[in-house]
Design brief:
With 735 residues, this protein is of the alpha/beta class. Helices cover 30% and strands 18% of the residues. The structure holds beta-D-glucopyranose. Residues 54-55, 76, 106, 150, 203, 282-283, 489 line the site of beta-D-glucopyranose (BGC).
């Protein structure tokens, strides 16, 4: 193994480009010449603070002394102007070379104004709105000391058991790529040195979402084809969007932990995609290569990490303890360290930290939780709601309603709706559901409320009171589901139902034969098969953030017509997981549920409960007249796909028109459907529009036999519709 590493280091270093004329590179070189080996290694070290803890405890260090000596390049989880300024002062006024620190933090879905969790935002299919959320998050964070966010998480997630599905854009790599680009643009602004631009970080590289059994941190073993086709695409898109940094994932792929993967970090990310930013490990992931059984001890972990091109060591102190000695004893080539240092310094220069190290402590912090930021949080939360069921038009509710009953532990709750990874979001600033409904209906409405059960659904002592108040009500709104802290890192679940007591409460209330509206909170797809027939409407609100209560009231009372569409499949049964819309056909496809020798379950349908792309509206959109500009597409052509959409209902609303293709035959087998384009259209009642969507050859390319992205001639089907199942079909041939 040692040989392989040494040979690789030599080849890699030879291939490094000669110094360019880029002014930033020149500045980096001038600085590098003055740095001691200890100071260079210092740039590769990231210390955690103990203000906020986002991983296993790391022993306290003498951070001030280490910063003064130039042994620290970055800190995470230090927030606020005062704390960051204090540490920055030591770095730039007391250390020999005055190299500024970079402060990183998980600004995932807002800083203090908290937006819906990323999976919820992805349900909006509104890329501009998502970019705006990230922009606002950057504005707030950059006014409070933070220059680097560990976001966006661009992991494709096909397994609802995995708690981190809440952090990403769902199961589709095409859509996930667009969302990744939008979020990166939002965080980084027009240019990295902008006043309130912060560095973004595409994470977790790579295939973290494919953890076996949906158990966090677990082994990943996938083919290169699936890796390239599904899991890597949003990362590639992140490089195209100019993301400043990458973060390694905790998992191994085919026996190699990501922080030690030459294949991922050097060959693909830097070699094939030309990534010029730097890579940070995940929390302790360099040392964790020992537990993986990939490194015998911290020394070997440090060698493997730096050789693989993992530039910055988050928390593990392995680089800090061993790299200097390893270079001195010639076990690590100093040039490898130099390359990592260059990449980190480059980003610090690009951010403008050398011009103004206090850049992020000087911005106007009165913008935090400002009215426009809260307004966007409200709009975003409304756009993220997905109407899953609406029988007998149970929704929308009338504002004339005199008496409304609210039941459930989420009704008054202010912390859970912020969801996991809520940065510095606080319940003090959250609008609860009951507050939102009260301000919508005004003083005269009679609102009765009972908690019914607790978050875990284990204390059912409140059932009796809930049933009592429900008896005399005009409308029952149930606020139930999965608490915010049940999803996120290390929150894998085998049972992806609502808490048992919540389901039980629904069953009890159903006996009253009243209209029941379920406002469903969740950070992942849940199994709703049993309770779905027991309620009249289901509005999925995910974990909606600071303005959740107002936004949900907007949707319930028709000030916003729900437009959210799922970007992740809701299974019928947990035994179907992983389940996703872009599955392959197999040699024995399911023709009908009775077919004997077909791929199927004998105890459950093959279909999900709610497919990818699904969501209802308070109006009806009719699709007609699917047409292609041609039945033949040349290798340089763009095919135009036309469709008429009519709003035949009584409310104005936004429809998300989705375009899928199927590549019928390939040198490698192809999925039954792949999303390739979509557009949103707002239509008034009775209004009709002819829409045009493009298919480019680039969109058809896939990681084909021969290991390259290629579009292959042959027959294709095109599907246009309201979700991945309900759509119209046409065909063309690529020649
Ligand atoms: C998570 C990362 C996060 C880091 C720092 C890790 O445990 O996996 O996503 O950015 O902690 O908080």
């Amino acid at each position: 193994m040692k040989h392989v590493l040494l040979i690789f280091s030599a080849i890699y270093l030879l291939s490094c480009t000669s110094p360019s004329k880029d002014p930033i590179d020149e500045k980096v070189e001038i600085l590098m010449k003055q740095m001691t080996l200890e100071e260079k290694v210092g740039q590769l070290i990231q210390y955690p603070s103990h203000e906020v803890n986002t991983g296993p405890t790391v022993k306290n260090t003498n951070e001030a002394e280490d910063i003064r000596n130039g042994y620290v390049g970055s800190l995470l989880n230090v927030t606020g102007n005062e704390s960051t300024r204090q540490l920055q002062k030591i770095a730039v006024e007391e250390s020999r070379l005055k190299i500024p620190l970079l402060f990183g933090f998980d600004v995932i879905h807002g800083y203090k104004t908290i937006f819906p969790i990323p999976l919820a935002e992805a349900s909006s299919w509104d890329l501009e709105a998502m970019e705006k959320s990230a922009r606002i998050a950057a504005i707030e964070a950059s006014s409070d000391g933070i220059g680097w966010t560990f976001a966006p998480m661009v992991d494709v997630a096909r397994d609802a058991r995995w708690g981190r599905v809440m952090e990403g854009a769902g199961e589709d790599s095409y859509y996930g790529s667009l969302v990744a680009k939008a979020r990166i643009k939002g965080f980084q602004g027009e240019s990295l040195n902008g006043k309130n631009s912060i560095a973004a970080c595409a994470k977790h590289f790579a295939a973290y979402g494919a953890a076996e059994s949906g158990r966090d941190y677990n082994t990943v073993d996938i083919s290169e084809n699936v890796l390239r086709e599904i899991y890597l695409r949003p990362f590639k898109a992140s490089v195209e969007a100019g993301v400043a940094t990458f973060m390694n994932s905790f998992n191994e792929i085919s026996g190699v932990p990501s922080s030690g993967s030459i294949f991922l970090n050097q060959q693909i990310l830097r070699g094939e995609w030309g990534f010029k930013g730097f890579i940070v490990s995940d929390w302790n992931s360099v040392t964790e290569m020992i537990s993986h059984g990939f490194a015998a001890d911290p020394i070997e972990a440090a060698i493997k990490g730096i050789t693989a091109g993992c530039d910055m060591d988050m928390c593990s102190k392995t680089y800090r303890k061993h790299l200097v000695e390893l270079v001195k004893s010639k076990k690590v080539n100093e040039k490898l360290v130099d390359e990592s240092v260059r990449r980190i310094l480059r980003i610090k220069f690009m951010l403008g930290l050398f011009d103004d190290p206090y850049k992020y402590c000087n911005n106007d912090s009165t913008v935090i939780l400002s009215a426009p930021h809260r307004q966007h949080a409200r709009e975003m939360a409304a756009k993220s709601c997905v109407l899953l069921k609406n029988e007998v038009k149970a929704l929308p509710l009338s504002k004339e309603l005199k008496k409304i009953t609210l039941i459930g532990p989420f009704v008054e709750e202010k912390i859970s709706p912020l969801g996991n990874w809520a940065a510095l979001g606080s319940g003090v600033n959250t609008v609860s559901l009951i507050e939102g409904i009260k301000s919508k209906l005004g003083e005269n409405a009679i609102i009765s409320y009972a908690k019914g059960t607790d978050f875990n659904g284990t204390d059912n002592s409140g059932f009796k009171q809930a049933i009592e108040i429900a008896k005399t009500s005009d409308a029952i709104v149930l606020a139930l589901g999965e608490p915010g802290w049940w999803s996120g890192e290390n929150k894998s679940r085998t049972n992806i139902h609502m808490p048992a007591g919540h389901e039980q409460l629904i069953k009890e209330l159903r006996k009253l034969k009243k209209t029941i509206i379920l406002v469903l909170y969740s950070g992942r797809p849940l199994i709703l098969t049993e309770i779905e027939p027991l309620v009249d409407a289901i509005l999925l609100v995910w974990q909606p953030g600071t303005e959740g209560g107002n936004a949900i009231a907007d949707v319930l009372f028709n000030d916003y017509n729900p437009s959210g569409r799922l970007s992740i499949t809701f299974p019928y049964h947990a035994g179907q997981v992983p389940i996703y819309y872009n599955y392959k056909n197999t040699g024995r496809p399911l023709t009908d549920e009775k077919c004997e020798w077909c791929t199927k379950y004998i105890d459950a349908p093959n279909k999900p409960l709610y497919p990818f792309g699904y969501g209802l509206s308070y109006t009806q959109f009719d699709y007609s007249g699917l047409q292609l500009s041609s039945e033949v597409m040349g290798m340089k052509d763009t095919l135009k796909v036309f469709i008429n959409i009519k709003n035949s209902g009584v409310n104005a609303g936004t429809e998300t028109v989705q375009l899928y293709i199927r590549d019928i035959t390939g040198s490698l087998t192809r999925p039954m459907k792949e999303l390739k384009n979509f557009t949103q259209v707002y239509l008034k009642p009775g209004e009709e529009k002819k829409l045009s969507l493009d298919i480019n050859v680039k969109d058809i390319e896939y990681w084909s036999y021969g290991n390259e992205y290629k579009a292959e001639p042959g027959k294709f089907e095109v599907f246009v519709g309201r979700n991945s199942i309900d759509n119209q079909k046409a065909s063309f041939e690529l020649k």
